[in-house]
Amino acid sequence: MEKKDEIVQYFVVNKELEMSAPKLAAQIAHVATIMTLKYQNEEDFQKWINGSQTKILLGGKETQLNKLIEQGFDFIIDEGRTEIPKNSLTVVGLKPMLKSEAQQYIKRLRLYR
């Protein structure tokens, strides 16, 4: 497997929300935990977990995150206990997959900054 087509995991953050770094980290941890439990026995997950464990953080508008949810990806809805409104869509996680496979889902998204 070439480096450019390695197995990676993408997280897409709702950039319309103003989350602090700790809040953002917690939201990503929530979806990562769910996906670990859900996909831990899949071959690509095993290759990824035993390899580089590359994670890429992207930003998108809520409409873009909703399109990913419609395609079956995992997501987190915040309970509103701290800094953002209840029922806010914070992050969508894509299970570990080849970069080339993920492009169909994330091609219009940019790195989160």
Automatic annotation (TrEMBL):
Keyword list, A-Z: Hydrolase
The UniProt record lists the keyword Metal-binding: no
SUPFAM superfamilies cross-referenced by the UniProt entry: Peptidyl-tRNA hydrolase II
InterPro entries recorded: Pep_tRNA_hydro_II_dom_sf (IPR023476), PTH2 (IPR002833)
EC number per UniProt: 3.1.1.29
Gene Ontology molecular function, alphabetical: peptidyl-tRNA hydrolase activity
Name of the top EC class for this enzyme: hydrolase
Reaction equations catalysed: an N-acyl-L-alpha-aminoacyl-tRNA + H2O = an N-acyl-L-amino acid + a tRNA + H(+)
Domain of life the protein comes from: Bacteria
GO CC entries: cytosol
Family of the protein in this entry: Belongs to the PTH2 family.
Name of the protein in its database record: peptidyl-tRNA hydrolase
Organism: Bacillus thuringiensis
